[in-house]
Specification:
STAS domain-containing protein (chains A, B), six-stranded mixed sheet, 666 residues, homodimer, SLC26A/SulP_dom (chains A, B), membrane (chains A, B), Transcription Regulator spoIIAA, STAS_dom_sf (chains A, B), two-stranded antiparallel ribbon
Chain lengths: 666, 666
């Protein structure tokens, strides 16, 4: 067995991609193998090679091809970004080298890819899921419209057109489109600064529609320009914190509505009913069979409470009711969009924020369910679909729609197969808009508040926050900042804090990176961080350091220079104390294997370091420099200054510098 | 020879830091050596080890000590920052474990370290250098004060007190302290927005002094808080661009003054004289003996032109002259500082910008000469010295002083030994303030403009700009942005652009990092970037990738996941085409050796990647994860999900996964 394994690896090492029938090449391979084996057998360590082999490896390091320049890099990245979607390169290039009409249609309308396999069984499941969805969606839509300070029917409108558009263009099969709590909160917290919804509801609504248009335009633009990565700027931790904060803010707002029903006789009962609903929502996730209860409960509550108010005429005793809801199809709102008002610039800004938050929520939801079912989402296509759906929405009296956390879960649990469930839901909502709005006249406002409240616990993910705390304390900081920012300052500040902290983390990591001492792992030619591998041992006479950063640049080069110099001087002092000048550090090896790039400031710092070390009787050697690094070091003539002290591995550096006679006598 | 070398390396590999007299340890070492040798000899490649050795190495990776937590990290970094200067840790800790009065004094007053060795020879040289410096300093100071829109004497005041303070507290021995062109320009471009220097010169002066106070306070604070790294935020490239831009702006301003001398008879002569002076300045750098000419020329020009104006009374024919310069010692300006004015906040902001620019110039100058002479500068101490000197300056009618590029070069060329040359210069300026200001009455303003002009070419470093272009195109972008920003917009915008681009570069590098395919370097167990090492060969059945970033985080994790997945699918497709399913990629090895940290978002992306790969018939293996990475992967339970597929090296990953029978049948 051992022999076979050996043989296998030998050949895989030395004859990759060669055809054994090519005898000349094969014999060469054999020869090189024999040579290497001799080397391997005659010396102990891998680094101890014949001068020829060592020289050859030296050449590998020094004679690298020129890396692509800035321009060609930019061109490649531009091409990749523009002409090839991130996540389905294969689909757009591999299989269709020349785009056909079908392939283009397939790209624009992803449902075409599954519609051939669509059958009656799947359709039945989708109808079932769509109806379930509608029963949850109708009361939620009315509630969220109220949260966004719009008339109730706008929530319902938003549950008609956007789902239909998404069903045609979107690639997710599970996501449930419509108004959501966080976006409604965002709108109602930012737009009233420009127009007051109570004194001037029509101007407010026009502004909401304009913001919706801008949000859609930004989303579509992100999709077309392939800026899918923008969504990632809100990190997972930030979303967890932001959602929880938003849920708390909405909850506090809704409690006011809920407690406004002072004269309602069964007040406590309703609360307890809703607490149980809210609990059942949670348990339903665990007991899949019970999800019906959770999904239907809001509609049942609405029907029951409306009936109760109608029968007791509690509205005459102070219970606020929804009253008139305009029925009928979505009216056109083209004339309501305002591009010349003094608020247009501000509306565009709000549109951008809302666009990003809506996309983040939708893509987070979409991705998690896609991963569960094993298909892939194209972030850019999703953005385009969301954009088109919101632009269309803004023309048909809808406000910003996106994928809802709670309803998507219900859709999934109800067994949806494709986006057809969204179509079924939209049609159901449309029918209720046409025929049932009168029935909702007596619906108490408090019940809508309760329905919103019941959806909130789903936004607060304590176990995820705990997980973040356990795994990454800095991530938790982002999460906590988003949460507290939203809760105590404002939604925008919370978002800004989260994004700011996330990027500050990246920069901080680059500004003051640590350095680590490397040691040899016993019995190998591998060198590892001495703190990570306590088993690693130092090499007398040499200090091996690595920078904990991918960039040696203006912001950290002097810091690192100081660190390495101090480390070297300390080691030298210790060496002097320990043994009589024998183990004195003569060589500082900088392992550059993780340095991806350097700049002119850092080359200057390296030169200074080399001078400083030399004046203290030490030498600098570089191990394993990467492509751009070695190229720039050559251009800057630094390679000449440390000629002969650039190596492929740390082992070779030790071998060559500590045993060679060229070493300066110190 | 070969045998000795072998023996040496063996012992250095296996018995580092062990005392041979300790027989037990020694025998253990021998045993482990024998074991390893057996392994080495019995198999071909280093990775092909006995199951025991392989298991042992596996344990090294998985059983790492817990890395220090966030709090202990913060504590360490806080301690290091506060209690130990960056660049002379040895001095403050190593040699004086308990601080004595002497050691404290040594830290506060660095000159104490050289004053013992100070002797008459050195003193003579310092006097010579100081006098040379004064001859250049007096006309420059008057010129820069005019540039800063202050009365001429303020320039002279600034050349008295700050150099004296610096000589006591600073650690550089070459730097020449006083007013400089760039800072004067900065003040005169920012402060007039608050107070107009022509209509209200007293209020303007008060504001300048207040700004000076704030600048000093910020500098001292940076020094005390050990924020020395702040200076690095202006990268080398940015400074080159910024200085050149500032020189052009100043030059254009001064040309106006120069061309204002329309009635002066010898106009063209003066220009030609100054052109020659300017040329001689440059050649003087090359011909060290001639630096006298350059250093003395401005003073000589002043004397000659003053005499000429006095004799011809050209001032009556329209030649603008300096007129009255208030003589005498620096007056106190304590009462001129304004901390209650409406401009105080703005003054503090300007103070901060000026403080950073002044420090950047001083430390850049100081460092380059320290490196030349082979001593070390402590950035934090320098900051403290600059801060105290500017605070004291603001109380004694000085404006912001710092280290001057041109005068430091003259000081160095004149053979200065210590900061005593600054004292000599200060005393000389003081004497001229006391006795010679009347002599400057007839000095034409044009000659001051010319002196400023003559110092400008030294700020424009075209060869350095060329070098930056050659080595690093992105750095050149920073340089060009700083230059053009200063030239065409404003000094602050130029600075902001340079700093902004520098940091944007860092962030961009982290957001969309590339991935690289690794291949085996022939005859070794090393894997390198296949583009860098065209000699590297792929391993059939495995795709080895590395992320070109030190952080796998929210901003790039999904991008990288997509990239790796696409790469794997492409390789798989090619494999299928090439040979009948034999070389089909079954294993994707992610080399994590350069990933320093991950966050929860990236762990989620890794989980998704693992799922995506599995559903395409591939497996994910990790090689060489770093300390924090493996720790977080364990906390997140990801290690359990890819149990047995985390390895120390890529070679081991290939060995274990491609030959083991545990591999999923595909």
């Amino acid at each position: 067995m051992a022999v076979t394994r050996e043989g296998e690896t030998e050949s895989s090492q030395f004859t990759p991609n060669t055809d054994p029938s090519n005898t000349k090449e094969f014999s060469q391979t054999l020869q090189s193998f024999a040579e290497s084996e001799k080397v391997q057998l005659s010396v102990f360590s891998q680094t101890l090679q014949t001068p020829v082999a060592s020289q050859r490896r030296h050449d590998w390091v020094l004679n690298v091809p020129e890396p692509p320049g800035l321009l060609s890099n930019l061109k490649t990245s531009f091409k990749k970004t523009l002409f090839c979607p991130l996540e389905n390169k294969i689909q757009c290039l591999g299989k269709h080298p020349v785009p056909t009409l079908v392939s283009i249609l397939n790209v624009i309308f992803p449902p075409l890819s599954w519609c051939k396999e669509y059958n009656v069984t799947k359709f039945k499941r989708d109808i079932l899921a769509g109806l379930t969805l509608a029963s949850l969606c109708i009361p939620q839509s009315i509630g969220y419209a109220t949260l966004a300070k719009l008339d109730p029917q706008y929530g319902l409108y938003t549950s008609v057109i956007p789902p239909l558009i998404y069903a045609m263009m979107g690639s997710s099969r599970d996501i449930a489109i419509g108004p959501v709590a966080v976006v409604s909160l965002l709108l109602s917290s930012m737009i009233p600064k420009l127009e007051d919804p109570t004194t001037n509801p029509i101007a407010y609504r026009k502004l909401v529609l304009t913001v919706t248009f801008f949000a859609g335009a930004f989303q579509a633009a992100f999709g077309l320009l392939r800026l899918g990565f923008l969504v990632d700027f809100l990190s997972h931790a930030a979303i967890v914190g932001f959602m929880a904060g938003a849920a708390c803010v909405i909850g506090l707002q809704q409690l006011k509505s809920l407690l406004g029903i002072s004269n309602f006789t069964n007040k406590t009962d309703i609360i307890s009913v809703l607490t149980s609903i809210c609990k059942s929502m949670h348990t339903a996730r665990k007991y899949k069979k019970l999800f019906w209860l959770a999904a239907m409960a809001p509609l049942l509550s609405v029907i029951m409470s409306t009936l109760l108010v109608f029968l007791t005429r509690a509205d005459k005793h102070g219970v606020k009711i929804v009253k008139h809801i305009t029925g009928g199809l979505n009216p056109s709102s083209l004339h309501e969009l305002q591009f010349n008002s003094p608020h247009t610039a501000e509306a565009a800004k709000i549109g951008l924020i809302v666009a990003l938050v809506a996309l983040t929520e939708a893509i987070a939801v979409g991705r998690s369910f896609a991963t569960m079912k094993g298909y892939r989402l194209d972030g850019n296509k999703e953005m385009l679909a969301m954009g088109v759906m919101n632009i269309t929405g803004s023309l048909t009296s809808c406000y910003v729609a996106t994928g809802s956390f709670s309803r998507t879960a219900v859709n999934f649990s109800a067994g949806c197969e494709t986006a057809v469930s969204n179509i079924v839901m939209a049609i159901t909502v449309l029918i209720s808009l046409e025929f049932c709005t009168r029935l909702l006249y007596f619906t108490p406002v408090a019940i809508l508040a309760s329905i919103i409240l019941s959806a909130l616990p789903g936004l607060i993910n304590i176990s995820e926050a705990k997980y973040i705390w356990k795994v990454d304390k800095m991530d938790f900081l982002t999460c906590a900042a988003a949460f507290l920012g939203v809760l105590f300052v404002s939604v925008e500040i919370g978002l800004l804090l989260a994004v700011g902290i996330s990027f500050a983390k990246i920069i901080l990591n680059s500004i003051q990176p640590g350095t680590e001492k490397l040691g040899r792992l016993p019995g190998s030619d591998l060198f590892g961080d001495m703190e990570q591998y306590p088993i690693a041992t130092t090499t007398p006479g040499a200090l091996i350091v690595r920078v904990k950063s991918a960039l040696l640049c203006f912001a950290n080069a002097n810091f690192i220079r100081g660190r390495i110099l101090n480390l070297a001087l300390e080691e030298q002092d210790e060496g002097v104390m320990d043994s009589a000048n024998q183990d004195r550090v003569q060589l500082v090896i900088l392992d550059m294997s993780n340095l991806l790039n350097i700049d002119t400031s850092s080359i200057a710092a390296l030169e200074d370091l080399q001078n400083d070390l030399e004046s203290n009787g030490m030498q600098l050697a570089l191990a394993n420099p990467r492509w751009h690094v070695i190229h720039k070091l050559r251009l800057a003539n630094f390679l000449k200054k440390i000629e002969g002290r650039v190596f492929l591995t740390i082992g070779e550096a030790i071998e060559a510098c500590l045993t060679s006679k060229n070493m300066l006598p110190i």
